[in-house]
Amino acid sequence: MSERSSRESRRRALEQARQEQQRRKRRIRLAVWGGAVVVAAGAGIGIGLGVSGGSASASAPALASTVPLSKLGHLTAAPSPGPLGPEEVPMPNAPVLAPPSAATTGQTIDGIGCDTSEQTVFHIHTHLTIFVNGQARQVPAGIGIPDAQAEQTASGPFDDSGKCFYFLHTHAPDGIIHIESPVQRTYTLGEFFDEWQQPLSSTQVGPAHGKVTAIVNGAVYKGDPRDIPLGSHEDVQLDVGTPLVAPETINWSITGL
């Protein structure tokens, strides 16, 4: 069997394991929550825990530290999100904010390791969108995958192999952060940026400087953006400077993530 065929076989096996895990999660969520919906007070936004896939503990920090989107005033309409990529998520037609760092070589970062295979004990996904002065910036593939190797698909490249996989990583330039961990715990946006070797604060996102406005699931996050928890099927947006852009959301139902 060629190396390419071997990689493809591993990718298919991993995808089957992911799909089965998602089916188990859906059954558990339906049994536990029974379709319960939590409504964010004052925001007018219903957040279904069963639909989003996030656990109460993972989502609570974000919900406890948000205010309604209306507090921001006028928002610029979001631009075209771009074509759907290999994860059925739009890939922005925009410059990359910053490339994956060559300094991330497999060393432990913030207690997060890098394993030769992806972990599935705790496996969720968060979507990250970034705007700088109203202009989109792309979150690249290969963050958290040292020496990433891309597989070409009909919908674009997909980084499916490398030296190792950090528990937080990206496979495609679509902003999907894969949280694949050997333990169930809450990871943060700051930890992802540390893997990326890029700064994140209330006044800086990567190389971009300016006031940072963070929007989580359609509500304004009040606090250090580094502390934003990475929950399941959550939409996180960072706006650096102005104008502020209306939040983008992902149609998670078509992604299979």
- Radius of gyration, whole Å: 18 Å
Number of strands: 17
Give the DSSP E fraction (strand runs of 2 or more residues): 25-35%
Output the number of helix runs: 4
Oligomeric grouping of the chains: single chain
Sketch the topology as an H/E string, one letter per element. HEEHHEEEEEEEEEHEEEEEE
Uncertain spans: 20-64
Average pLDDT works out at: 82
The span between the termini is 29 Å
How many domains would you count in the coordinates?
Answer: 1
Overall morphology: globular
Helix content: 10-25%
> What class would the helix/strand composition place it in?
alpha+beta
Biggest beta-sheet profile: 8 strands, mixed
List the helices and strands and how they pair.
Blueprint: H1 3-33, E1 37-40, E2 45-48, H2 49-52, H3 56-64, E3 66-68, E4 114-115, E5 122-132, E6 135-137, E7 149-153, E8 156-161, E9 165-166, E10 168-169, E11 176-181, H4 189-196, E12 200-201, E13 204-205, E14 208-209, E15 212-216, E16 219-221, E17 234-240
Parallel strand pairs: 5-17
Antiparallel strand pairs: 1-2, 3-16, 4-9, 5-6, 5-11, 7-8, 10-11, 12-13, 13-14, 15-16, 15-17
